[in-house]
Write a structure and sequence with these properties.
Elements (H helix, E strand, L loop, with lengths): L9 H5 L10 E5 L6 H12 L3 E3 H11 L2 H11 L6 H12 L8 E4 L5 H13 L6 E6 L2 H15 L6 H24 L3 E5 L4 H16 L1
Parallel strand pairs: 1-3, 1-4, 2-3, 4-5
EC number: 2.7.4.3
Catalytic activity: AMP + ATP = 2 ADP
Pathway: Purine metabolism; AMP biosynthesis via salvage pathway; AMP from ADP: step 1/1
């Protein structure tokens, strides 16, 4: 077996030590079943940056009893969606913490056009720019099979074929404008998310190197 030539560090990715710190502020997107969470964790470890998911941010604020956490809990208790402005504020607070100065990987944010603009504003206020957006893609039939198998193993009766298909449709509708916007900026790297985990990681890093290097 030949050794992979895929870049595996920021230095290798950009080709010079002086550029080592460039590729650090990333967003990852992908439909349910594409392995986004797994790849997010691997990329965060590879580049030495924290993964920031909206789910983790919400849980941390609620558990910590912050004003934003209490506000989010009020909406959730009423069965209402948490307004974008609350989510934006949580992301802003999280990106102000010390551990993200060297970079971050956002997972689950932005989700709509408003949040794209909000993230631009947050990063602008910090005098930062987004370095890249990874979109994991997958054949729809493969996604349906993956999610159905996982639902069966986990005993999730609510994951019916119709419910899974609806979630994938919603993802496609909500994400298309975001990926189009980031593609226009030259930031988007689309990567096939199907295959061995390590192979997909290699594809992501290679795509980022080609797209942004």
């Amino acid at each position: 077996m030949t050794e992979s030539n895929t870049p595996t560090t920021r230095r290798e990715l950009h080709g010079s030590p002086s550029a080592e710190g460039r590729l650090t502020r990333l967003v990852i997107m992908g439909p349910q079943g594409a392995g986004k969470g797994t790849q997010a964790a691997r990329l965060a470890e590879l580049f030495g940056i924290p993964t920031i998911s909206t789910g983790d941010i919400f849980r941390a604020n609620i558990a910590g009893g912050t004003d934003l956490g209490k506000l989010a809990q009020e909406y959730s208790a009423k069965g209402e969606l948490v307004p974008d402005e609350v989510t934006d504020s949580m992301v802003r607070d999280r990106l102000a913490e010390d551990d993200v100065r060297g970079g971050f990987l956002l997972d689950g944010y932005p989700r709509n056009a408003h949040q794209v603009e909000a993230l631009d504003q947050i990063l602008g206020d910090l005098d930062w720019e987004l370095d890249g957006v990874v979109e994991l893609t997958a054949d729809r039939d493969e996604l349906l099979a993956r999610i159905a198998k996982r639902a069966e193993l986990e005993g999730r009766e609510d994951d019916t074929p119709d419910a899974i298909a609806r979630r994938l449709d919603i993802y496609d509708a909500e994400t298309a404008p975001l990926t189009a916007a980031y593609a226009e900026r030259g930031l988007l790297a689309r990567v096939d998310g199907i295959g061995e985990i390590s192979e997909v990681t290699d594809r992501v890093v290679a795509a980022l190197a080609q797209q942004l290097g």
